[in-house]
Amino acid sequence: MSVGAVVVGGGQSGLAAAGALARRGVRPVLIEAHVDPTGSWSRYYESLRLFTPAGLNALPGRPFPADDAYFPSRDEMAGYLRDYAATLDCEVRTRTRVEAVTRHGSRFVVRTDRGDELGAGMVVAATGQFDNPHRPDIPGLRGYTGPVLHAADYREPHGYAGRRIVVVGSGNSAVQIASELAEHARVSIASRAPIRYATEDPVPGDSRFWTVLSLAGRVPAGRWFGAATVPVIDTMGYRARIDAGRPDRRDLPVRAEGRALYWPDGSVEAVDLVLLATGYRPALDYLAPLGLRYRHRRPGVPAHRAGVSLDHPGLGFVGLDNQRTFLSATLLGVGRDATYVAARLT
């Protein structure tokens, strides 16, 4: 089967890419591995609220249906993406996983787990990162034999009541998950460095901070940003809770034996669960046959210029961290980036 373009991934990045291609007269086929075109949103932890207000969380042509200052929930965002997908002029194939993308002459061949092969002049890789959780090697945890979960596996706190839990990480997800768990369990946030906050005080949804953030996110300076943790945007009073020790924050353990963690201050305690809120890496294994070059300072990130492959004409990316701006992996950023990439592929 021959098509004009294939978009791999049906979350916010893929939907933005499909919409951008359609606006330029290319009707793409969008392929999503899961049950509906919501990407990772329906699989995040249940209490998740966006760290940015609704006014900054919309794809081109469809405002989020809420007050601009409102912080949407996980399920509300998933619903928004389903509605957005229904408006697109493209073919959407769900429950279909792309296994490999190869190149034959000037065209790509996209092979799926259903046995389909689609020939296309353009491919946009928009699979995001949720399916590739980053589990770093932490020396102080090597001897720990208790259960270790990643934030990708966490759903809700009630099954952890009364337990001793260490959340590893210092970003928005670590802070939000640890604060939620601290209402039911004894929780510490452990990280290499202190938590960095974007502001001194909690940021309400109608703050000018969001206008400044949006404007700064238009500057195409993404390549100058490294892989450092994004500062925590405190929208729910997380800093006050952590300062009060609910949860507390401490340096990483120096070693572990069985379920015992040894802390830098010399104390030792048994821990029931370690939860890694250590981020994700691009999930792009299906591009391996193309022999892409990768950036040595950004693990798993292919060589590209603002989302356009430096190795294969017709190949683009949407949703990579700092792909074009420091907001490139956000809902606001993917819309802008998809428009840019589509214009350069068509």
Could you explain how this protein is built, in words?
InterPro entries: Auxin_biosynth/cation_transpt, FAD/NAD-bd_sf, NAD(P)-bd_dom_sf. Helix 1 (12-23) packs parallel to helix 6. The model has no long low-confidence stretch (mean pLDDT 94). The longest helix is centred in the C-terminal third of the chain and has 15 residues, at 331-345. This protein has 6 helices and 17 strands. The protein has 2 domains: 2-132 and 280-345, FAD/NAD(P)-binding domain (3-Layer(bba) Sandwich); 139-197 and 232-276, FAD/NAD(P)-binding domain (3-Layer(bba) Sandwich), CATH 3.50.50. The chain is α/β, with parallel strands linked by helices and 346 residues long. Helix content is 19%, strand content 21%.
